Amino acid sequence: xxxxxxxxxxxTGVKLFSTEKGINVIKSPMKAxxxxxxxxxxxxxxxxxxxxxxxxxxxxxxLQALVDDGIIDYRPDPEDRRRKIFYIKSxxxxxxxxxxxxxxxxEHYFAGVSNYKDPFExxxxxxxxxxxxxxxxxxxxxxxxxxxxxxxxETVYNDLESSDTEEFIKNIAEFWEGNKLGRVKIExxxxxxxNAYDCFECxxxxxxxxxxxxxxxxxxxxxxxxxxxxxxNADEVKCYAKGDDYCCFVIKEKELGNPDYKSxxx
Length: 266
Fold this sequence. Notes:
The protein is α+β, with helices and mostly antiparallel strands.
């Protein structure tokens, strides 16, 4: 009985999207699965069917409903105009789940607020404390933080810009440290792999078993997208919140209609 209840709980999560018609609450597990796929990359109908394991008629019905709600849209596949490429056209605001990511230890975390005398450190802790309080209630605002990071990245790009990629990355490292976001080390340039230490966003967060640097990844996606002239993903493969000793971002190009990525230098 306990296992059945647990399974039922896992299906109670909802996604929140902001559309032209207002906020749309997605409760359908099937729609949520499709949106999770499209959050990673735009995708063809056949790819969506393949990744969901559902029938074409079922997928088609849910896709049409999401289009009608203004959450997703589609364009012709440039390689075969008979096929459609689906993508998210609205803003993902966050997720709400009955499964709380934090059950214990949060009160001890909040108790550390009074220990900080440096104003910068205090406000940094406030930022993390708000996230912890929301996580305790099953609310994940990572999509909003990611969008905020993209806006910041687009704003600061002109201060970092350089036609030389290595010089550009050096400017990023100086920006990161100069604004106390942490220390950045370039692990590789093919693909671009960036390690971040003393991370502003997540270093003191409780371990939640998943990457938590949505704001940082948004900044990196925005500035590298502008640098290369096309969209990229900043995939966080390591994170303090997962129990790692540092955060690690891999910068890879998005490939049209394909959930896989390719190297920026390939």
